[in-house]
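We read letters as residues; the fold follows as tokens. A sample entry reads:
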Amino acid sequence: MRFTTYLLAFLLPWGSNAEKHEFHLSKCALEYNESEKALQFSLHLFTDDLEEALRRQGIKEINYCTQKEATNADEVLNTYLQEKLSIQVNGQAREFVFIGKEPAEDILGMWVYLEIEQVPTLSSLNITNAILMEAFSDQKNIISIKGPGGKKSALLFQKGQIQKSVNY
């Protein structure tokens, strides 16, 4: 876990002065909220990377988190994430609900909020995360998980390693 924290601190200088990033990384905080019986996701994506991946699918002019944002932007994002991110909770496939999105403080990205409701207990997670991997061969996706009882873990997804599991 210390290595992951160090890696994030080193790789993620999310300064507002940055014009472009030279790496392809998404980060996600996934927390099991025991009182609400829900898995709650906070996913950070670079908007230009997401829009490039969508362009490669033939979807243009989305303009996330701008005044020119397309009216179907949330629907397109939800569809994309449903295709690229899948979750099994306690051995059963579960769909997440798209809650919303907002621009990130770094102005280059956005935060996307997702939730899986009605999770009375959490004993295992099987995650497939291929977000943006079709667009960037060096794409890395990190998920930090806070499970039952505050148990923490971190998963790194990359080309050839898009499926990971955690047991509690």
About this structure: The helical segments are 2-11, 47-56, 73-84.
